[in-house]
Specification:
CATH architecture of the largest domain in chain A: 2-Layer Sandwich
CATH superfamily of the largest domain in chain A: Bira Bifunctional Protein, Domain 2
Shape of chain A: globular
Low-confidence stretches of chain A: none
Distance between the termini of chain A: 25 Å
Helix content of chain A: 25-40%
Number of helices of chain A: 14
Radius of gyration of chain A: 25 Å
Largest sheet of chain A: 12 strands, mixed
Mean pLDDT of chain A: 96
Number of domains of chain A: 3
Oligomer: homodimer
Strand content of chain A: 25-35%
CATH topology of the largest domain in chain A: BirA Bifunctional Protein, domain 2
Structural class of chain A: alpha+beta
């Protein structure tokens, strides 16, 4: 039983500015994005949170298909012997695996892992499907649930079970696989920036943060508003490691038998945690309009005498806006307008429209932006034109605000001491250099609790002395991370 | 390890008319809808099959949302103690449960079931969420993977793991819950008939076929082309059984505390098996246009001299049709037209368009219907207008053909002997009467291997003497079933 499950619903939202971890779980539960489940480390994604995930998924799925991939579905259960075929892979994942040992009333001869990731199962199938260069590339994606037996969990950010997509591709050459890995990495960057208003850094991971079994790993990393980094997506070049372990060979045009080159890449429901932390404020969530379940809510300001008149106007506007955006009218009688304002702010609805009898007299509505709380008096005849513009403005401003925040919280440092001095005042990204020696990386981690989030691609003036040993090094971004 | 996994791909499709069970697995594997997975009873849904599922899901999901339901996601793992709360429920499902007993390196204190259905988990959450009549109705649906440890499995029809949607609702009164159960039953009927071209019978299940823990169960039942019935969807009135077991109470308007009334309803990837069996023929699949991954395929008839000219025309037509339907041009050089025709027939693509140099000279294309193999010579300028009509015709004709088949294979019988006589010649639906005594039902099953598929709703002249004991009974449809 999950102890958190018994935690009562908070009565009042903790301020983000005062206690971000507390605010984070409060706002997720109070806004009904998710609730604790009774199974250790698991959550229930509630309808409002799931609608957010559906909007995110729909857009990402389209981008995955536009880049030539097709969806498929592979089994949940993976025989232990498959997982053991790639030595580094099993070592990395075995501590996190939930094992099925009984089916019905029988003890199983071989334990079955609930997939902690699907390389082992998918590679097994690829070894059966791939015979010739004509079968390549294989470009498959899967939307699935994943289980990792985590010790410390947090809603959306790290849960025992989570939802994700995992792309798995096979290619004839290293060059093609590397092209694919980078294509999907930059697709993730564009997706995060355009749809989630989430600016990200892109780059390579150090050896120590590489996916278990991969040749190398790339990631997108976002800076949360508490100055901690969040790994928001990864793209792995698996090289031929799995091809050799699972015997995935093809007859090439030159009549020679060769191992394929593979990639895998994924993002998960963790992205929702990132959206919550990056954009929210003391009053609650602020959702990017592109993926908000409700983009506009209309709240009537009425009493018994004005109810008919105001109600008619609210319904008429709601009807008209339905063609333009995801809109809802909050006609509940049992709550007062002020209570509703708070609730829709808590839920992060991007735009609120208020209509009262005085507004009707003036032929206007009141339009309030969730992000800036700016109030606009808009003539009724102009609302339809205005609404798309305001939603677009909010989407852009959320992104730009996050970019500004990142710029202000990126610090160039030349040494561990400098980083620690800075850390006493502020958290953020530490832009420095590293000699690519694991010992120096470990020393930084030990002394500052930061890790290398990524090694960026930019090449100009990118080399410099390592922040530990002062030998020549590559540019590297360090941060404390979720 | 799954023995079927090692079965080689058949080289030639078995004829449906000669051996339907063999044809069924052959066509699914050769058309790449699915493949056997290496885990017992599991399958891999391949891209072509998954695309079919996505089209089906997208349409069904819209209908579920139009009837006021919202999607959510509940955990995969259910503590054993939850499953045990409703006595009949655990008795029904325990023999089919896969149990997780180890997490990471630790033995768990309590076994966790991989959901065989989610009532136990969802009821647990509902007991936490529902307090007042204001919280009702709760109308939630979930798309999820399900695991049932089955002994005998068949691709799509019965697999250890399958995908489904499960609706779970809670209401203040029995009347409301019954209204919901029937609303969703008839929604399933409309969906099957409109989208899958699959006529279904609707009705109540007998006690013996009721969902474990339900008050009563309704179902849609389809007649496959071998005369066996397929249960294609179910809708259960759970009564207050689960509400009492999980303590789901609400304070009603009259200030009294009451248990909620619940429903659950679901359809699964089994529907794909139904589509395959109902519509396919000796040459392969026949997919209903509404959900076919590819609705139209264009095949060039070319040689080296005519390649440019034909290729240009094919691409131009493909481009133009993209706005109207899901179209693909098969421009592969390594295969001859005849080979491609066979392949696209096998895959059940509803319409094939052929374009060769002679067609270009005549300003026409050749259009071939998959279902009837009818060939039409269509002036190039009329293809765009014609295509939607032909796709609509195929959808309607598939449905009507299936209705005709069902009418021809429904036999009124008055006794078990009559049914057995008929069964020596033909399989189908036996339209008879039953006294609602389980002993008579068991006798029919033992002597004919048929079961009551459903007790229809129609009331006119619906009573008659039981086919066993001759006491007055309700009308009932019997059939052998998948």
């Amino acid at each position: 039983m999950n102890d958190e499950f018994k935690e009562p619903m908070p009565e009042k939202l903790t301020k983000k500015s005062e206690n971000m971890p507390r605010w984070y779980t409060d706002v997720i539960r109070m806004a009904k994005l998710a609730d604790y489940a009774p199974v250790k480390g698991c959550m229930v994604i509630m309808p409002y949170g799931f609608s957010l995930w559906e909007n995110l998924k729909e857009n990402l799925d389209r981008k995955i298909k536009e880049t030539g991939h097709k969806n498929a579905y592979f089994p949940l259960l993976i025989p232990e012997s498959f997982l053991r075929k790639e030595a580094e892979h099993v070592e990395g994942f075995a501590p996190e695996v939930a094992w099925v040992t009984q089916g019905g009333h029988d003890q199983l001869e071989e334990r079955l892992a609930i997939r902690p990731t699907s390389e082992a199962m998918i590679c097994h199938m690829y070894s059966k499907w791939i015979r010739s260069w004509r079968d390549l590339p294989v470009l498959i994606n899967q939307w699935a649930n994943i289980l990792r037996w985590e010790m410390v969990t947090r809603l959306f950010l790290r849960t025992t079970e989570f939802l994700w997509q995992e792309g798995h591709t096979a290619h004839a050459t290293y060059e093609e696989s590397e092209e694919e890995v980078l294509r999907m990495l930059f697709m993730y960057r564009d997706f995060a920036e355009e749809y989630l208003a989430m600016p990200v850094m892109v780059g390579r991971k150090s050896e120590s943060e590489r996916f278990a079994g991969a040749l190398h790993t790339y990631a997108i990393e976002a800076l949360m508003s508490d100055g901690k980094a969040l790994q928001a997506g990864t793209s792995h070049n698996l090289g031929q490691h799995f091809a050799k372990a699972f015997d995935i060979k093809f007859l090439d045009k030159d009549e020679k038998e060769k191992y394929v080159w593979q990639t895998s890449w994924g993002v998960s429901t963790r992205l929702i945690g990132g959206i919550v932390m990056m954009h929210g404020d003391d009053a609650g969530l602020i959702l990017p309009p592109t993926i908000a379940p409700v983009q506009v809510v209309i709240v009537p300001i009425w009493d018994d005498r004005t109810k008919d008149r105001v109600g008619t106007a609210v319904n008429e506007l709601c009807e008209s806006l339905t063609k333009l955006c995801r809109v809802e009218a909050d006609l509940r009688d049992e709550y007062r307008p002020g209570w509703k304002f708070n609730e829709h702010e808590l839920r992060g609805v991007p735009v609120r429209i208020e209509i009262g009898p005085k507004d009707l007299d003036k032929g206007q509505v009141v339009l309030v932006r969730r992000d800036t709380k700016e109030k606009m008096f808009v003539p009724r005849g102009e609302v339809e034109d205005k609404i798309s513009k305001v939603l677009g403005d909010i989407q852009r401003d959320l992104y730009e605000r996050a970019v500004d925040f990142r710029i202000k919280h990126t610090y160039k440092v030349k040494s561990v001491e400098e980083m620690n001095e800075m850390l006493e005042r502020e958290r953020g990204i530490f832009d420095s250099h590293w000699c690519e020696d694991a010992a120096c990386e470990a020393k930084v981690k030990q002394e500052t609790k930061t890790t290398i989030r990524c090694i960026p691609f930019d090449d100009e003036q990118s080399s410099g002395p390592c922040l530990v040993c002062k030998k020549p090094g590559v540019r590297a971004y360090f941060a404390r991370a979720y």
